Amino acid sequence: MGHPEAPVDFTVQELGDLATFLRGVRWRAGAIPYARLSKLTSWSASALKRATSGRMLPPWDLVRRFLAACRADQISVDHAFTLHERAAKELELRAQRSRKASVVPRPELVRDKADLSGALRDAYAAAGRPPVRTVAGYSGGWVLPHSTAHNIITARALPTGIDQCIAFLDACKIPFHQLHLWFAAWHKAMNEPFAEPRQYAFSRENVYVSVAMYKAWAAARAIEEAAQPFAA
Questions:
Q1: pLDDT of 41-76, one tens digit each?
Q2: Contacts of 184 (CB under 8 A, 6+ apart)
Q3: With 90 as the cut, is the pLDDT of residue 136 above it?
Q4: b vs e for 84-105, b when ≥16 Cβ sit within 10 Å of the residue's Cβ?
Q5: Phi, psi dihedrals of residue 68, rounded to the nearest 5°
Q6: Alpha-carbon gap, residue 162 to 35, rounded angstroms
Q7: CA–CA separation, 181 vs 109, rounded Å?
Q8: Distances from the Cα of 46 to the Cαs of 62, 108, 135, in angstroms?
Q9: 0.70 exceeded by the pTM?
Q10: Residue (of 67, 75, 74) closest to 40 by Cα position
């Protein structure tokens, strides 16, 4: 008779839930030995044991083969997939939090394009350096393509217009009450006239809000600039 399994590690609740479920599937199948499961799944016995430990996220292929070897039904497979997705998301959130930089972006200090590039990269770092596909996907990939988002993050380029700038800022979770500082920084660095954002191109509700805030800010600035000659 083999040694009893160590208790499931619930340091990360979602990993523990997945491991517990896999152990239950195995026991309901007659407590198939891991050596036997290894032959049925083409995964090593040690990898299968780690998958049911709660200490790591196993590849979905391992989980899928594990369930098939235990003759799990489709409901069990679907539930395992949900648990696996939850665990993956929780691990990504934890990794993102650990990557967050202590630096605070200061758009109000932007003087030129180099400063703007640095401030945008600081905003990206403060957001936890999310995957480039996440940043690009925030606008549906239309306004801010993957390649452009990567170039902004690596200081190879700046947003090509206010549309991309707004999409990038929202992907970096810039609070609404700070957006006016970024709008001012953009126009100061780029030295360009106010542009009308292509609101139809965005796919996220909070980006629509940011676009509306930019329009209101730009209108107020235009009124201020028009009034300056009379004030003089």
A1: 999 999 999 999 999 999 999 999 999 999 999 999
A2: 107, 108
A3: no
A4: beebeeeeeeeeeeeeeeeeeb
A5: -65, -40
A6: 59
A7: 9
A8: 12, 55, 37
A9: no
A10: 67
